[in-house]
Amino acid sequence: MLTGKLSVSKNGKIQLQFTNSKGSFSSCIIPDSALSADLLEIKKTVIARLNGLDVELEEVGGQPKHIREKGKPFVSTQPITPTPKKEVTTPPQPVRSFHSSPRNNTPGDFHNPYNFVPALPRNIDGELGDRTPCGHGSYLDNHWSGRISVTLTTITPLLIPDAAKAEGTNHKIYPLRLDADGKPYLPPTSIKGMLRSAYEAVTNSRLSIFVKHEERLAFRMSTNIGIQMIPCRIEQDENGNENGNRLIRLLPGTSNIRDDGTPSPNLMYAAWLPRYRSGEISRNAVRYPNGNLPEHQQEVEAWVEKFQHSRWDNKNKQHKNDFQYWRVRKIVPLGETLGDEPDPTTMTNTVNRQSHQSLGVIKKIRGFVCITNQNTDKKHDERVFFNSENPIIQVLFTDIAQKLEKQWQNLINNYQEIHEDEIYKKHKDSPPALNNSVWSRHIKGVGYSLATHERNLEPGTLCYARVRKDNNGYEILGLYPVIIARELFAIDPLSLLPQELRPAIQIDQLSSADRVFGWVNQNSQGSYKGNLRINSVECNSNDSVESFGDDGFPLAILGQPKPQQARFYIAQDKQGTPLDKGIAKENTYQSNNGLRGRKVYPHHNNLPAQYWNNPTQIEQEGYFQEYRRPKNNNIERDDQNRSITAWVKPNTTFSFKIDITNLSDVELGGLLFLLSLPENHYHRLGGGKPLGFGSVRLTINWDKTDLRKGEAWREFYSSLYSTFNSSPGQAEASIAIFKNAVTEAYGNGKSFEEVRFIQAFCCGCQGFNDNKPVHYPRKRQQQGQNPVPPNPEGKAFEWFIENERTSSPKVSLPALWDETGLPLLP
C-alpha cells in the first residue's frame, strides 16, 4: 500500500502526488476509474474538498489504482480488473489509441509542439542565487566531487544528423552520425546542452544566452489603419539653418487632416497611379509620353481624375459608396509639357463587385512618384504624393529625430531580417505565400543587394506618417514604408526580462547553472569553464540503427521561432501567465508584461503503437505521422525541409560518465533530480524535437558511481588502503536539500511540485494526457474536416492570421499544465 495527496487543477482535473514503489516521487492526472466511489461522489458535489486530501492507493502495472481516502476501504462502482505486470527492460511507454476518448473541439483540438517553463523573478540569496564559483584547484570540504555513471535509453527515435556529410544543395539529405564501429555517435556536447537547458529550468537560473533582442519587434497593423496614413517626404530644411536639418513635409492631397489622421472629406490622400494586372505590368499602366514608366521619387506633373469607389452590398443588392480617390490620367517628369486636360471617363469599371465611377472632376497636380512594387497579389496601382489647395504642413525633424530614426531603422531591419533567409539564401523572387507578387522595395532593394539605403531617412525619402493633431500643429507618431505596414511593439523583448534573469556579465553574478555548466560573457571578455564534464559516451546496443536508403525520407517542415507572435511568447505578468483571450495584439509587449519563459518541447505522449513504423504519411485510426512531409503535386522535398537516411531506434541504450567538481548540496541535488525523474518522464535530445523525436530516459548506475565530499577525498588520497564508495543514500539526500531550497525560495506556502517552474517542467517531461495530436498550428482546409491532415507546405502563418481576425478567438498559448490545447481554425 502507498500513500499520497490529491489536488484539483484549475480546469477541474484531479492530480495525485505520491512516492511510487521504486521510491521515486511521481505526479499525474487521475482518471475517474481509479477513484473510489466515495471520492467520485465528492468530486461530483464539492470538488474543493479533494484539495490536499491524504489518500491510500495501490500500484498496478506501474500506475496508481484503487485510490481511496486514507483509512477507508476501496469501494468501486465498477469491476476492477488489475493489469498484470510485464517484464520490461526499459521504462514503459504508454500506448493508447490516439483518439481513445471523444475529441473535445472546444476549446482545443491540438497541442503546440513547443511551450514554456516560466522564468520567475530571482531576488533570492543562497545556492539558488548568484555568487562567485568555487573553482577547480582542489576538492573543497562540504562540496561534492566525483563521477556519476548514467544510462540513457531512447523512447522515441533519435536524430543525430551528420551535417559534415550532408548531400544536396536545394534539398539537404542528412546521414546518421556514426562512430568508428558503425554505431550511433552521440556527442557529449549534445548531452551537456540537454542537461543544461533542463538544469536552468529547475533551478530558475539566469538565461545562458539572450541575444538580438534589444530592438522592438513588429506586427502587421490592422487594415483599417491605412486610412490614417498620410503621405510625406523627408526634405532638407532650407530656411537658413546652417546645420542642414531635415523636416517632414506632409502631402495630404486635396483633403484636410482630422484629429485622428483620417481625411476630410472621405477622399484618399494620394493619387492612384495605374500599374499592374495579374502580376505583370498592365497594358493600361499610365506611362510618360516616351513610353517609360514613372520611377520612384521622381517629381512629376499630372492630370488626375476624381473617382467614387463602391462595394457591393449583398443585403440590399446594390453598390454602396465606400470612398473617393484621385486617379492619374496623364503624367510627365517635372519640367516637361503635360499637354491638354483629358476628357472625363464615361465608363464605370466594375471588378470583383467593386465599382469605380468617375465623378467628372479633373485637376492638375505636382507631386512625387512613390513605387513600393507589386507586394500583394491584388495590387493594381502605385501612388503619387501631392499637396494641393492646402497650406504646406511641415514638421521640423530635429524635434523628434532620435525617436523617429530609431523607430524607422528598427522597422526596416525587422522587415529585412524576417525575409533575409528567403531572399539571400533561398533566392526567392517573391513572398512564398503569394503567387503574383514581388518583394517590397524597402525589403529587397535592387537585385540581390541588401537595401541598406532604405534604412536611412535621407532627404527625398517618401513614406507614410501617422499623426496626432494638437493645438501646436501635428505630432508625428511614426513613419512607415507602406500604407498597410508593420507596427513596432511598444517595448523590446530584452526590456521584459528582469535583470537577475539576464545572462551574467561578471564572475560574481553566476547563477547555479552558470557555475555548474560554465559561462561565457556575451558582451565582453570573461568566462568560466564550469564544474561538470560529460565523457565516455558509448552506444551499448547492437542493431540500433534503422536505415531508409540513400535518399531517406523527407521530414515535415520545421518552424522557426517567431517572438513577434506575442500571444505565444508574451505573458501577462512576470510569473509567465498566458495572455488573456481576446487582448489586442498592440497591447502586448507592454512594460507591465513579462516573457513566457524558457522554450521547451513537451514529450509526445500516448502515441499510437505503430506511429514510428513505415513513415509513409498515411492516416491510421484518426492520426497522421506528423514527422513526415506529405506529397504536394508529387513534390515532398525542397528547400523548406530536410531528409534523413537513418535514425537511432527506440530502446537503444547509451552510457556516459559525468565528472563533477566542488558542487554544493543544492547544486548536486538539482543534477541528481534530473538524472532520476519519475517514471514516464523524459528529457528531449537531438534534432526534430517539435516532430516528436528525441525523448530519452536517464537513470543513474549507482554501483558505478563514486561521489564524495572534499574531506572524504582527502581521506581517500591520504590512505594506503582502498576505501569503498560513499553510500548512494548520502548523495541522494541532496535531492531533498535541493527541493527544500526551491520550496523556500519560490514556494510561498506551496509544495515543491506546485512551484510554477517545477510544475511546468514536469508536465513537459511527461507530455499531455488527453490524446490530442501535437503539431504546429494549421487551419482546416474544408468545413467540418476533422482530423486535419498536415499541410505539405506547413503554412502555420495562416492559423495565426485567422486567429487575429475580428470574428476569431484571439487565443494565446495555454500554460504547460493546462491541457485545453489550441483550436483548429476554419
From the N-terminal CA to the C-terminal CA, the straight-line distance is 50 Å
Structural class: alpha+beta
Report the principal-axis shape: elongated
Strand fraction band?
25-35%
Mean pLDDT: 86
Extract low-pLDDT stretches.
78-106, 446-450
The helix count comes to 11
Could you give a short account of the major beta sheet? Answer: 7 strands, mixed
Helix content: 10-25%
Report the strand count.
40
- Rg over alpha carbons: 32 Å
Task: Give me a quick take on this structure.
The chain is an alpha+beta fold. 15% of the residues lie in helices and 26% in strands.
Describe this structure in words.
Helices cover 15% and strands 26% of the residues. By secondary structure, the protein is α+β, with helices and mostly antiparallel strands. Helix 7 (665-675) crosses helix 9 (728-746). The model is unreliable at 78-106 and 446-450 (pLDDT under 50).
Characteristics of this structure?
6-stranded antiparallel sheet, alpha+beta, 7-stranded mixed sheet, 826 residues, 11 helices, 15% helix, elongated, 40 strands, 26% strand
What secondary-structure arrangement, pairings included, does this model have?
Blueprint (H helix, E strand, L loop, with lengths): L1 E7 L5 E6 L5 E5 L7 H9 L8 E7 L2 E7 L45 E3 L26 E11 L17 E3 L13 H16 L14 E3 L9 E7 L9 E5 L1 E2 L2 E2 L5 E2 L6 E4 L1 E2 L2 E2 L17 E15 L4 E16 L15 E3 L2 E17 L10 E7 L5 E4 L4 H25 L15 H4 L17 E9 L2 E8 L5 E3 L23 H6 L1 E2 L6 E2 L3 E8 L5 E3 L5 E2 L11 H4 E2 L22 E2 L2 E3 L41 E3 L1 E3 L4 E11 L1 H11 L7 E2 L10 E6 L5 E4 H9 L9 H19 L9 H11 L29 H8 L23
Parallel strand pairs: 8-35, 12-22
Antiparallel strand pairs: 1-2, 1-4, 2-3, 4-5, 6-34, 7-37, 7-39, 7-40, 9-26, 10-11, 10-24, 11-23, 13-14, 15-22, 16-17, 18-19, 18-21, 20-21, 21-22, 24-25, 27-28, 29-37, 30-36, 31-35, 32-33, 38-39
